[in-house]
Design a protein that fits this description.
This protein has 519 residues and is an all-alpha fold. It contains 23 helices and no strands. It folds into three domains: 194 residues, MFS general substrate transporter like domains (Growth Hormone, Chain: A), CATH 1.20.1250.20; 191 residues, Growth Hormone, Chain: A (Up-down Bundle); 52 residues, no CATH class. α6 packs antiparallel against α11 and α9 crosses α19.
Length: 519
């Protein structure tokens, strides 16, 4: 999939600043929309007259179309060109956001969300590629840092901003806010990058590969989103989706590896740096994303936090990461990126080991401190990891590599979330059964607890009910602690996977550096 690429000199001065701001705004708007609607589902469902279960398709529809579009970035870039594709995607994203806001019914809203997710796909990898092409070789790590700051703060800001807008205005404004942001991003990108288009080729359309991609990704994403509600593989629907996804995936891999013009360049996995870095980043992000979904859920259902307060507990991680990420770019130029990423993974492990010690009496200070450590992990994760993934790649393959690695990262986020939510239920049930085994009439603690309640006027049945709720709380606490422990162990294990890679040292002409003249 090689191509002759047009080289452009790096940008400087005001153009560099405007270009960075424009691309970052588009990226922020894109990532924000993956999470901003989550806390507004009850409000949206009520206004449109549907159940909350039906309302969750507002999230699912975006995720499915976005997951399908992401790995197509490399192929689309070669057909359309980087700059044209990025600007077109951003314009269509703004239009889709407006359509979401004016939606009079759920089907209309879902159609707009499908469009929004599809056009959002190329924006994330192309934002990386455009930033890299704009910066001098020596400042490539700085470009990575600026991209990472946006990617890290948007998911944290999404639920907080979405909740605040829903509480103080009306839900359509969670989509309308994209209009001015997108307009600025489009204007700035066109002003700076319009004369820096990449080379294009009229490649044939890999129709079968595209159909297989839509089938296996769509079936998998719907299975993940609806599995918990439908009791997973006890449901014929979930079983059918799993079989369909598996068969389509096998055919997809075989076809893409043998087709002359594949829609997704799977040959990238033959490269050691890309494979090791992409897998490590995808698994690490999957664990991180699953935990930032699990932690607020646990705080609300088990500790009694409000939704807004639970979201604010996560805020320090994004703030710390945003402040420290630019310094990571400087470190990448001096140290082996594997060392920096190993530190990041170790910080995540420390964070989750700390959280695994939580009890149902946890205080706010104990909740916030591990989040600060998590911010250290986030600040030192994306920049060196992206350097590893793109190390040694020719500039023409960066959009395809970025699209494929981001696709796997986001897909693992969905997989991790589904696994963790189901695992928490199962572990809580197991712990409840184990705790209940020790609860008999002859247990001093049980007798004392129920006796005190009865002395206060509760009936025998009421005392048993209160005790059972206490068991539920403790079982849920032990269940979430198990998942924190598992997360810590996996983060440590990922360090070993990371060192399979052999990225070129900073200062040598690798992909992350040479991309500055890529287009």
């Amino acid at each position: 999939m090689s191509q002759t690429h047009i080289e452009h000199p790096p940008l400087a001065g005001a153009k560099l600043a405007i270009g960075t701001l424009a691309v970052s705004l588009a990226m922020f708007m894109n990532v924000l929309d993956t999470s901003i609607a989550n806390v507004s589902i009850p409000t949206i469902s009520g206004d449109l007259g549907v159940s909350s279960d039906q309302g969750t398709w507002v999230i699912t529809s975006f995720a499915v179309s976005n997951a399908i579009a992401l790995p197509l970035t490399g192929w689309l870039t070669q057909r359309i060109g980087e700059v044209r594709l990025f600007i077109t995607s951003t314009v269509l994203f703004v239009i889709a956001s407006w359509l979401c806001g004016i939606a009079p019914s759920l089907p209309f809203l879902l159609l707009a969300r499908v469009m929004q997710g599809a056009v959002a796909g190329p924006m994330i990898p192309l934002s990386q590629s455009l930033l890299l092409s704009a910066y001098p070789r020596a400042k490539a790590p700085l470009a990575f840092s600026l991209w990472s700051m946006t990617a890290l703060t948007a998911p944290v800001a999404g639920p907080i901003l979405g909740g605040w807008i829903s509480d103080n205005y009306t839900w359509p404004w969670i989509f309308y806010v994209n209009i001015p942001v997108g307009a600025i991003a489009v204007a700035g990108t066109w002003f700076v990058f319009r004369d820096r288009e990449s080379a294009t080729h009229k490649l044939p359309i890999d129709k079968l590969g595209l159909v297989l991609l839509v089938i296996w990704v769509g079936a998998l994403q719907i299975m993940l989103d609806k599995g918990k509600d439908l009791d997973w593989f006890n449901s014929p629907i979930i079983l059918g989706l799993a079989i369909t996804s598996a068969i389509a995936f096998v055919y997809f891999v075989v076809w893409e590896l043998t087709d002359r013009h594949p829609v997704v360049d799977l040959s990238l996995f033959k490269l050691r740096n890309f494979s090791a870095g992409t897998i490590a980043l995808a698994v690490a992000y999957g664990l991180y994303f699953a935990n930032i979904v699990l932690l607020p859920l646990w705080l609300q259902t088990n500790i009694g936090y409000r939704a807004t307060d639970a979201g604010l507990v996560l805020a320090p991680a994004g703030l710390v990461a945003a402040v420290l990420t630019p310094f990571t770019g400087k470190l990448v130029g001096r140290f082996d990126p594997r060392l920096i990423t190993s530190f990041s993974l170790l910080m995540f492990a420390v964070c989750f080991l700390w959280r695994a010690q939580y009890t149902s009496e946890v205080d706010t200070w104990s909740l916030m401190m591990p989040t600060v450590i998590q911010g250290l992990g986030l600040a030192t994760l994306f920049v060196p990891m992206l350097g590893i993934i793109l190390s040694g790649l020719p500039a023409s393959r960066i959009p395809a590599a970025s699209g494929l690695s981001n696709f796997l990262r986001i897909l693992c986020g969905g997989i991790g979330t589904s696994i963790f939510q189901t695992a928490w239920d199962h572990r809580s049930i197991l712990h409840h059964a184990q705790l209940n085994e020790t609860t008999t009439e002859y247990s001093p603690a049980f007798g004392q607890f129920t006796g005190q309640l009865q002395n206060l006027g509760a009936s025998h049945a009421q005392a048993y009910g209160v005790f059972n709720r206490v068991l539920d709380q403790q079982a849920a606490q032990l269940g979430v602690n198990d998942l924190f422990y598992i997360s810590a162990i996996v983060f440590v294990a990922l360090i070993g996977l990371l060192w399979i890679a052999k990225p070129q040292r900073a200062g040598k002409p690798d992909a992350s550096a040479s991309a500055s003249g890529a287009h």
